[in-house]
Amino acid sequence: MNFSEVIQQLVNGISLGSLYGLVAIGYTMVYGVLRLINFAHGDIMMVGTYMAFFGVSAFLLPWWASFIFAMVLAALLGVVIDKVAYKPLRSASRISSLITAIGVSFLLENLFLVLFGGVPKAFPIPKLFAGSLNIGGVILPFVSIFAPVLGIVFLLILLQLLHHTKYGMAMRALSLDIETTRIMGVNVDAVISLVFAIGSALAAAGGILWSLKYPSINPLMGILPGLKAFAAAVLGGIGDVTGAAIGGFIIGVSEILIVAIFPELAGYKDAFAFLLLILVLLFKPTGIMGKDLGGRF
Amino acid sequence: MLKVSNLNVYYGVIHALKGISFNVPEGKIITLIGSNGAGKSSTLKAIAGLVNTKGSIKFLGGEIAGSKAHLVSKKGIAKVPEGRKVFANLTVLENLRMGGFNRDRNTLEKGYNEVFNIFPVLKERAKQLAGTLSGGEQQMLALGRAMMSEPALLMLDEPSLGLAPKIVSEVFDIIKELNRKGMTILLVEQNAAQALKISDYGYVLENGKITLEDKASNLIVNEQVRKSYLGEM
Ligand SMILES: Nc1ncnc2c1ncn2[C@@H]1O[C@H](COP(=O)(O)OP(=O)(O)OP(=O)(O)O)[C@@H](O)[C@H]1O
Ligand SMILES: [Mg+2]
Q: Which pLDDT band holds residue B128 (cuts at 50, 70, 90)?
């Protein structure tokens, strides 16, 4: 590989990583407050992407409006899933919620298969993102620039919310001790809804960016990115928002680079995320940014 | 101010509180004493809205049994939980901010200053993570955090637990002082001697039932109380 190819692949990796990171943040936030791995999270990403698809192709909204429309609907979906499926199990054993999450995941996948069929649909790419930039032989698709920029903007907004607003502070307190947070006068159910809303909206954003990169959507499209984002969240230290973003970038970049360096391994590319996860956990069981106690965000 | 009647708490098949009744009049310090597992914490949790209950809990004339915990807090009841439970991953200042979660922003500064006046050490440690404080400092933070909501009724669950005798006296002095300034207090303690000394009235809780009640000054000299709770043979 020559220099410009390396840069090219790095940009690809970073842009893929920011998608994983956006989805990973939802996993990590929900885990932080409820100690629940929301296995339906990848499917919420899928639903969000479909909503953007319908926004553009059925409701003829401009792309940015359908982007927002999809994030809002995904946020609502996340909140409803929590209220209907997880909230009744708050005091049950954790394994019950986990199994329920897997159930919700199957439900969403199969519901969308029934409603919209399994044939992939072409995701409409706005003109703005169709082009690319050529800098000294390095070709940078607009999407690959847009994705990490948007990912980092969302991350910064979220960190600002977590560390400089009272509801963000309540989320951090909640991640440590739900009962004590309640007696401070915090409406914990509302804060948990907010967490689901934020995580799901970011997953939708990740899904839409994903589809701008790989413009073919189907009801099972959330599974693999969802699992890799989950790996990213654990890799970064589950419960830690910055860790989730870092984990996403690491998995995205290494996946692309390994395939670029060893093209013969391309068939195994989906396994790298998990191999990397196993390796990191062997040496640092709490993940990169994770702590044993406290500091969940 | 607080009137509890025929209060029951169940944890599955365990009947932890078996129909207890007691009163906390405005401006007083009331103590519940009892040994491990008697149901002291359950009583405070029931009032705070943290567990399901049967029976009536009247606060300032309104029924609060069955209310959600955050609404009970908004009505003016604060609790210092057993084992302090400061938010270890938040700074001292953020812990205080959590205590004043529903307080008007404009009066927050005044609240911090009141807490720092009573606990100067918390001011020095304001930017430090609460988890790094000593046990005594954490108890002070838990107290300060509860004060931040300007509660009409302050409930304390074993504030002396795990503290050195000198710090225990300090904590009880502060409770007495808060009461003198007008705060009504419901105290739960195994350390019966010191608790009764600062209290107006006391109840003895055994196996989820109230077996004895009297003026605190009478309980201190009560034969049965001395034997069971004051460690005298
Ligand atoms: N979450 C729970 N699930 C089941 N049983 C519980 C639960 N919490 C308390 N109990 C039981 O209820 C009874 C009363 O407990 P509680 O914590 O109120 O006692 P306590 O007087 O505060 O004791 P201690 O002095 O040890 O703090 C005990 O028998 C206890 O085992
Ligand atoms: Mg107790």
A: very high
- Domains in chain A: boundaries: 3-221
Tell me how far apart the alpha carbons of residues A142 and A165 are, in angstroms, rounded to a whole number: 33
List the one residue out of A46, A68, A67 whose CA is nearest residue A223: A46
Cα B124 to chain centroid distance, Å, stands at: 25
Which residues line ligand 1 at a C-beta cut-off of 6 Å? B 11, 14, 16, 34, 36-42, 82, 190
Max alpha carbon distance in chain A (Å)?
Answer: 60
Per-residue pLDDT, B113: 96
Q: Choosing among B84, B101, B155, which should be mutated to test the A contact, i.e. which has the most A CBs within 10 A?
A: B101
Displacement of CA B112 from its chain's centroid (Å) = 20
Nearest to B94 by CA among B124, B64, B127, B62: B127
Rounded to two decimals, the ipTM of the complex is 0.93
Categorize the per-residue pLDDT at A296 as very low, low, confident or very high, splitting at 50, 70 and 90: very low
Q: Is the pLDDT at B231 greater than 70, yes or no?
A: no
Q: Where are the alpha helices (DSSP H) in A237-290?
A: 241-261, 269-283
Q: What is the pLDDT of residues A134-188, one digit of tens each?
A: 888 888 888 888 899 999 999 999 999 999 999 999 999 999 999 999 999 999 9
Kindly give the interhelix angle for A3-34 and A223-236, rounded to the nearest 10 degrees: 80
Which pLDDT tens digit goes with each residue over A63-82? 899 999 999 999 999 999 99
Ramachandran assignment for A111, one of left (phi > 0), alpha (psi -120 to 50 degrees), beta (any other): alpha
Residues of A in contact with B78 (CB under 8 A): 183
Element (H, E) at B19: strand B14-24
At residue A19, what is the residue type?
L
- The CB density around residue A152, as the number of other CB atoms within 10 Å, is 15
Say whether A183 and B87 touch across the interface (CB within 8 A): no
Instruction: Count how many Cα atoms sit within 13 Å of the Cα of residue A4 in the half-sphere of its side chain.
Output: 7
Residue A157 dihedral angles phi and psi, to the nearest 5°: -60, -45
Q: Are strands B153-157 and B184-189 parallel, antiparallel or unpaired?
A: parallel
Question: Ligand 1, from B42, B156, B207, B209: best to mutate by most atoms within 8 Å of Cβ?
Answer: B42
Distances (CA, A) of A21 to A185, B25, B126, B181, B224: 33, 55, 33, 52, 64
Tell me which chain B residues have a C-beta less than 8 angstroms from the C-beta of A181.
87, 98
Q: What is the Cα A126 distance to its own chain's centre?
A: 22
